[in-house]
Each structure stands twice: as C-alpha cells, then as structure tokens.
Write a structure and sequence with these properties.
mainly alpha; Helicase, Ruva Protein, domain 3; 2 domains; 73% helix
Length: 137
C-alpha cells in the first residue's frame, strides 16, 4: 500500500504542477494578445507622427527657401545646347564662341551676363547677334 500511496502522491504532485503550468501558459497567452491591440494603436500613432513630421519639414522648407517650393506651371522644354552652367538655351555658334574665350573666370562672367540679359529680355534662344550685344561690357 505504501507504493500505491507514493504513486497517488506523485500523481497528485504532477497534476498540481500541470495545473500551475496551465495557469502560467494562460497568463502568458493573455499578455501576448494584449500588445497586439496596443500595436495597432502604436501603428496609428506612428502614422500620425510621421504625417506631422512631414508637414513640419515641408513648412520649414517653405520658410527657408520659398522660391524652390512653389513650382511654376509646366515650362516648355527646349532642346539644344545651353549656356555653360545655366538653363538658357543657345545656338551651337554661341557655344563655340563661348569656348573660344580663353580665361575661365572671364568666360563665366560673360556667360552670366548674357544669361541675365536673355532672361530680362525674355529671349527663348540666344543667337550670335544677341550674344555679341549682351556680352559687351
């Protein structure tokens, strides 16, 4: 009988342990399910924060460099060569004439002057005649 008592006692101990284990597993499962609900809320908060950062950065950029934030209407694209380091279109003859200026800083000054005059005169393409006029200091 003593063996039977020992077996019964062991069985009772195993059942107690299994019950505690089941309780622990249930509590762990409950805890694991809770963060998934907060993860949804965190995801929404993250999206709100990202939108706020985007809006803030956009506002600050507009304050710092407003001329680059307001884009003009679609400007017509012009094919062909441009004056060096500008977006002013010109003819091949003008490009050749600019390359013949031997001193780099003088070349840059001439190009900038011609580009400014072309913009102020609203010239679509700088030709040789306009270049000779505008390049005169």
């Amino acid at each position: 009988m003593s063996e039977q008592n020992k077996v019964q006692e062991r069985l009772t101990n195993v059942e107690d342990r299994l019950e505690r284990l089941e309780t622990l597993l249930t509590s762990i499962n409950d805890k694991l399910e809770q963060p998934s609900q907060t993860a949804v809320a965190d995801g929404e908060n993250t999206e709100k924060f990202q939108q706020w950062v985007t809006d803030y950065v956009s506002m600050r950029l507009q304050q710092l460099v407003p001329e680059t934030c307001d884009h003009p209407a679609e400007t017509p694209k012009v094919d062909g060569p441009f004056l060096d380091n500008t977006n002013v279109p010109c003819t091949e003859e003008v490009v050749h004439r600019v390359k013949r200026i031997p001193i780099p800083f003088v070349r840059e000054m001439v190009v900038q002057r011609v580009a400014e005059n072309a913009r102020s005169a609203q010239i679509e393409r700088v030709d040789i005649d306009f270049f000779e006029q505008a390049a005169t200091f």
